[in-house]
From TrEMBL:
Self-association and partners: Homodimer.
SUPFAM superfamilies: alpha/beta knot (SSF75217)
Name recorded for this polypeptide: tRNA (guanine-N(1)-)-methyltransferase
Domain of life: Bacteria
Methyltransferase keyword on record: yes
Gene (name only): trmD
Pfam families per UniProt: tRNA_m1G_MT
A single GO cellular-component term on record: cytosol
Family statement: Belongs to the RNA methyltransferase TrmD family.
CDD domains reported for this sequence: TrmD-like (cd18080)
Function of the molecule: Specifically methylates guanosine-37 in various tRNAs.
Residues at which S-adenosyl-L-methionine binds: 115, 139-144
GO biological process terms held by the UniProt record: tRNA N1-guanine methylation
Length: 245
């Protein structure tokens, strides 16, 4: 169940950090096959031009179609999948979520097309839809200068869900968002630090009381910080004890 990931960018060095940590280890162990491509390798002029002025006027530059079609055609020709998923990072995309990370982790081949400037000529996305499943994706409601940082976040979120990448699969089950709630607070030794005590319930050895306390802290924290997540809960996501019955 290996996942192949290709990233196309005009700043391939940005993605060098994907050699580090858990994702780098997964690559070395062959669980994840990741290649980063320089879009400028698909240009043919002396200046390796990837952008031009926008039709209709306006600020900034737009990425030209030709280098993209050439780069993506090359990647497509090497694909193990009949119709790889093309993720196009964009603040105008659908918001990336943990559910989407799980969905992407099931794919055989993911391709990330990092735009810069004001974006990629729209016809590239139309053309690409004939060869890929095209998915514009945003990290959230703020603007980055390009897709590279977003791709780092998405590759890490997806990569850690590939079987074998995270050593202890329990840590995937317990973490934030897996049950629709934020995580409970955690503590380690010493039991007293800076005049602050670890909540006594955690030292009690009473596993049922600890589980109840942690769940209440999750609910309290989620209601305070992310009321939108509370609204999204289905009745079946709650335990009768969550409601005090
Ligand atoms: Cl995926 N790309 C860019 N350029 N800006 C963003 C983003 C993506 N997500 C949030 N802001």
């Amino acid at each position: 169940l290996k996942v192949r990931i290709d990233v196309v960018s005009i700043f391939p060095e940005y993605l060098a950090a994907l050699d580090l940590s858990l994702i780098g280890k997964a690559r070395r162990e062959g669980l994840l096959e990741l290649a980063v491509h320089d879009l400028r390798d698909s240009t043919h002029d002396r200046h390796r031009t990837v952008d031009d002025t926008p039709y209709g006027g306006g600020a900034g530059m737009v990425m030209k179609p030709q280098p993209w079609s050439e780069a993506l055609t090359n990647i497509r020709s090497q694909s193990p999948a009949p119709r790889p998923l093309l993720v196009v990072p964009s603040p105008a995309g659908a918001v990336f979520t943990q559910a989407m990370a799980y969905e992407l982790a099931e794919k055989e081949h993911l391709v990330f097309a990092c735009g810069r400037y004001e974006g990629i000529d729209e016809r590239v996305l139309e053309w690409a839809a004939e060869h890929f499943e095209v998915r514009p994706v945003s990290l959230g409601d703020y603007v980055l200068n390009g897709g590279e940082v977003a791709v780092m976040a998405m590759v890490e979120a997806v990569g850690r869900l590939v079987p074998g990448v995270v050593g202890n699969p329990e840590s995937l089950i317990e973490e934030s968002h897996s049950d629709g709630l934020l995580e409970y607070p955690v503590y380690t030794k010493p039991a007293a630090w800076d005049g602050r005590d670890v909540p006594e319930v955690l030292l009690s050895g009473n596993h049922a009381r600890i589980a109840r306390w942690r769940r209440d802290e999750q609910l309290r924290r989620t209601a305070a910080r992310r009321p939108d997540l509370i609204s999204d809960l289905a009745i079946d996501d709650l335990d009768p004890a969550d409601l005090g019955v």
